[in-house]
Write a structure and sequence with these properties.
The chain is of the alpha+beta class. The chain has one domain: Orthogonal Bundle (Cytochrome p450). About 45% of the residues lie in helices and about 10% in strands. The protein has 16 helices and 9 strands. It has a 5-stranded mixed beta sheet with strand order 1-2-6-5-3. The chain has a two-stranded antiparallel sheet with strand order 4-9. It has a two-stranded antiparallel sheet with strand order 7-8. Strand 7 and strand 8 form a beta hairpin. Helix 10 packs across helix 12 and helix 12 packs across helix 13. The structure holds protoporphyrin IX containing FE.
Length: about 425
């Protein structure tokens, strides 16, 4: 496609000190600011230090660049991006492995998350959702969508996949919150986060020990049954590295996407009315939410000196590729800046691309579809009260809303 919005080719851009998670423009204007950066400087470097070694940071924003970086695992490695560092040789699996080791773990995870296995779960997932929505709708005329629904729903589904009773739900939610959302000022030396991560690991290991004795039809029993490297079972740290990643990757992403989706529908009544009148468009609405509000910002490490994409990168530099800019790039999508509820085709990159493409995408889509179906059957009309506009939460890896207050049935707060 012809680039019409690009600056002069070959022009080199530097944004001194830029780091997206601390940038006022992104923290205030969110996706609109990513759009502006894409228009003005689709490739730029920052001298911001993000590790003890001297390195540079490169931002590649355009769709084709993002696509190419994520597929080139030989030049752009996923190593060393663990969320937690409370154990020295700890790896989140499979996300921190590059091929070919990565393939060993994807091969054992893929079957559990295949379209058919996930479709088998639809009834039980719908039952969880119905109960949550029923309690909210019967319990009043307003809620915090994130706290009351969007986090509880995927967390309950995850506990179900672990085969763990939902009486542990509140503890899990608290751990997730402490692990992912404790700010630097609340927890300068990381004690709160490490304690939460340790508690999550201890909990997961207890479940594993129990399943060794009493296997069931759940993910932990499946992983205990798997064999790698020609016949050995997974080691403890491998098992925990996988379960912990599933926990982190599956809960916050879905809840964040639901936050953006419901905020959009509250602010755009015509889209909401169409979705209620024609529930058959919900699957395509889900895809458009994923494209228009692509929350994940990915990082890779450069493995050797290169001039890829006209950028003189050195081994050890870090490349940031935000999926939001890829998915809102006018060179890749017609009317990219508009939300088109029945957009087709819609080949967005919200789940990534290449070997690390999201293993939970079928589950995520199902959860989002069921959430939208069940909620709108029960509460078709709602709004965000004027004094309840949400702040953005911009981290290194995602962009989310702090809270989403919804009111319905005449309630204004
Ligand atoms: C709407 C919700 C979700 C979004 C937007 C999302 C997005 C992503 C993206 C962009 C990646 C690629 C990361 C990379 O290339 O480094 C990824 C990987 C992953 N996701 Fe998701 N995800 C979602 C839900 C889930 C769910 C529900 C699960 C499972 C319970 C899950 C499990 C994973 C895992 C295990 C990986 C690592 C895959 C690998 O490295 O091979 N995700 N996800």
């Amino acid at each position: 496609m012809t680039a019409t919005h690009r600056p002069v080719p070959g022009e080199r851009h530097v944004r001194p000190g830029f780091l997206h998670s601390e940038d006022d423009g992104i923290r205030t204007n969110g996706f609109a600011e990513w759009d502006r950066l894409l228009r003005e400087t689709p490739r730029f470097e920052s001298d911001r230090q993000t590790s003890p070694e001297p390195n540079r940071l490169w931002y590649l924003l355009g769709h084709d660049d993002v696509y190419a970086v994520l597929r080139n695992t030989e030049l752009f490695s996923s190593r060393g991006f663990t969320h937690t560092d409370f154990e020295s040789d700890y790896m989140m699996i499979p996300s921190e492995y590059d091929p070919p080791e990565h393939t060993r773990y994807r091969t054992i995870l893929n079957p559990f998350f295949s379209p058919a296995r996930i479709a088998d779960r639809e009834d039980s997932i719908r039952a969880i959702c119905r109960e949550l929505v029923g309690n909210i709708a019967d319990g009043g005329s307003s809620c915090d969508l994130l706290d009351d629904f969007a986090l509880r729903f995927p967390t309950s589904v995850f506990l179900g996949m672990l085969g763990v009773p939902t009486e542990n739900l509140d503890t899990f939610i608290e751990w997730t919150h402490r692990s992912l959302h404790t700010s630097q000022s609340e927890d300068p030396d990381g004690t709160i986060r490490d304690a939460a991560d340790r508690a999550i690991h201890e909990f997961l290991w207890e479940v594993a020990l129990e399943r060794r004795v009493n296997p069931r039809d759940d993910i932990v029993s499946h992983l205990l049954d798997c064999r790698v490297d020609g016949g050995r079972p997974l080691e403890k740290k491998e098992l925990l590295g996988i379960l912990y990643l599933l926990f982190l990757a599956g809960l916050d992403t879905v809840s964040s996407m639901l936050g953006w989706s419901f905020t959009h529908l509250a602010n755009n009544p015509s889209d909401r009315q169409r979705l209620c009148a024609e529930p058959a468009i919900i699957p395509s609405a889900v895809e458009e939410f994923l494209r228009y509000y692509s929350i994940v910002i990915m990082s890779r490490k450069v493995t050797r000196d290169t001039d890829a994409y006209g950028c003189p990168m050195h081994a050890g530099d870090r490349v940031i590729v935000p999926l939001a800019t890829a998915d809102r790039d006018p060179d890749a999508f017609a009317a990219a800046d508009q939300f088109v509820i029945d957009r087709s085709p819609n080949r967005h990159l919200a789940f990534g691309v290449g070997p690390h493409r999201c293993v939970g995408s079928h589950l995520a889509r199902l959860e989002m579809r069921i959430a939208l179906e069940e909620w709108h059957r029960k509460v078709p009309d709602y709004e965000i009260p004027d004094d309840e506009r949400s702040e953005l939460r911009v981290g290194m890896f995602t962009i989310s809303l702090e809270h989403v207050t919804l009111a319905w049935g005449g309630a204004t707060s």
